[in-house]
Structures are given as C-alpha cells and as structure tokens.
C-alpha cells in the first residue's frame, strides 16, 4: 500500500495522504453538522473499492464569535437603533444580543450598565465567511432612554451556550430634545355622586420629559342665572361673567326705566335713599337677610361654571364642590418640563342627580356615539333643576 484516499460524503471531496499515516485531522468543518467518510487503499496495481460509510459524527458547537463594532443607525427622543453585523455563531443560532450602555456626561464618570437583552428573529445557517459578509446586519431597538442625552453602547451575541465576548464600544450618539406630552385621551367618568364625580384617564406619551401633572377643565353646561363667556383659547385667559337683563314691560320698556312722576324721578349717581324700617332695603330686616343669603348661595353655585383644576401626575381626580341638579363636562391636558399638551376631547355631559350613588357616567364608544349615563334616583325623591333621565 502506497497511498490512501479519503472522501467526505457530505460534499464528495477527496483527500490524498501518505501510506505511513492511518489517521488524519480534518480542519475547517462547520460546527454542529454531521459528517461521514469513505476510504480507499492504493498500490502499484491500482486502488481498492471505497469502504462503507463511517458512522456519522456531529461536530460540537460553542458560543458565538465576538461581534463587530455596533453602529448607531438612527435616534429619536427616547430611543436609538443600533446596527450590528452578524458574527459567526459557531453552530448554535444567535437568539439575541446583550446590550450595555454608558451615559456620557460632564457631571459623572461613565460606566457600563443598564444591561438589556434584545431578541432577534431566526436567520439562515451560514457555511462560509463569504456568505456571512452578504448577510444584513441585526437591527437592535433600544428605548426608554433620556431625552437630549449622549450614549455609547457595546454588545455581546447570545446563543444556547451563552454570551460571547463584548464588542468594542460604538461611536457616541445623542437622543433628540423632549417635546410637550401627546394629547390625552378623553377622560372617563367612572363614578357620579350628587356633588362630585371621579375622573380617570390613560397617561399620554410624555415625549422625553416626565409628566409633572394635569390640568382638568370643568364646565357647567346647564342651569344657573349667571352665564360665563369664556375665551375660546385653550387655557382660558380672563373669564367674563354676564348677567341676565331685567324683564321688560309689554310695551318694550324696561320695568326699571324712569317714570315722569316725581315719585319715580331718576336718582343721581351716589345719591342715597333711606330705607323704611322693615323694608327689603333695611339691612336689619329679615327679608334683607334672607335675600342676601339667597344671593350669596346663588353666586357660590355659579362659581363652578368654568374652572381649571391643577392635579398631580396621578391619572385620576375626584372633582368636588359641584352643584346637584346640573350638567357638567370635563377635559384635561398634561404638563411636563417643556409645556402643556393640547386638551383632550370633552366628556359627554353628566347630570349630577340628588340620588346618584357612584354610578358610571356617560361615555363615548369607539364610533363616537354616546353611551348613556345610568341614573338611580332615590324612591320618592324629585330630580334637581335641569336634571335629565338617561
């Protein structure tokens, strides 16, 4: 025997080696793949038949190769997207990447931390370095970052054997400036009582600056003898109160107009007219005291016509000191360090009935249609002024 021929059954490659050796070491095989072989012996007369195939042997797998340097592809207010070239997985599919970041600041020393695992979708097996070069990079989305902050990143590939070595740090990238919060959704009226309601809402997107609070706008939409003309601007401006005009006589003249009789001569400005004892104009008369108390109560009830209420960052608020028997609606805006958001849509009008005991108020459905308020009145009680059954 002067030679041996060894054939790899998976690709038909034949290797020739000296007759002095009866073993050979194969290099550059793919990890995690099964191989079998056949052998021939040769002398001066020729070569033998191929032997039977050897038992298939599977090569081992291991942790992935070290990834290359990650690249910052794009950024937003609270997120950055990294691109990472696919490293050789050594036979075990890469399932994700461990990512660490450093916050670069002049106020503290940068250190690696805030590790997250970013999963990646399955990709086809790679059998050569040339094929690996043609593969698209992995795209890693990193969110929950601080706005207007500089970061760098390093990554390690993860497969069934664990994590690879850390890559070198990426170039530095910076997130964008924060914005005002998004417009909040319409609040829900979850509980209705005779003089208060409970509002709840979903926290809107903060856009990089933590929400510090909310402003709830309350408007009474029916009842009362004082009407509020508010500025159409968001937030209000100055509030203007207008009173009903005095009634007019059938002839079209005001009942408070001057008459030609001396008994009804017009008063000059600042002129004082003494009130007779016991009359309404007498401050000490019972009628004047009752009238003053009634006017005070009426004025107090009209103070809730249009109100802005400052709230903390918790997305819920109990609105108190409302007037039973009237209808109200509400909307809100969110605040952060940049400013205030747009106001949410108005809630439907909710009726504060004297018999209300925590029922859910009206709401809008997904199609914008009204879902009626359920009002439970106490037996024998009468609805308040302006109350409606829904």
UniProtKB/TrEMBL annotation:
It comes from Florenciella parvula. It holds the Pfam family fn3. Residues 1-62, 66-178 form the Fibronectin type-III domain. PROSITE patterns: FN3. Residues 230-293 are annotated as: Disordered. It comes from the Eukaryota. The keyword Repeat applies. CDD domains: FN3. InterPro entries: FN3_dom, FN3_sf, Ig-like_fold, Striated_Muscle_Regulatory. Keywords: Repeat. This is Fibronectin type-III domain-containing protein.
